[in-house]
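Quick illustration, no need to memorize.
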Amino acid sequence: MSRILNRKRKYQAAHDNQGGRCFWCRERVRYHEGTLDHIVPRAHGGSGRRVNLVMACDPCNKTRGTMSPAEFLRSPYLIQKRAPEPKAERTKQEASAWPMERTSNGPTRRGTPSPGVPSSAPDAPTATP
């Protein structure tokens, strides 16, 4: 019974320390869907102590098997899984329509005054002493 409680504590600590994300791919993992993974695999002399345990998603843990951390970080599986998804290509029409400008008040449509910023048009009345 104490082994089960100890394992639950280790899992809870790994989940909390990693913010609910897989140690390897950084994807969100629900509490009940994650697995405990040994950073240094037991097959390579790794221990079952907390410092050697991390939470991993099931696909990463199964794919990693007994690979060392360096081998797994260079594996095509993890490289592809961590690659950013390509941004959707915008059409020329979308890209040229209403370009945005950065101002001190935040993004503004070009040609539209920012709220609270006086117009600098030459015909604007100015106060003369």
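The first strand starts at residue 34 and ends at 38.
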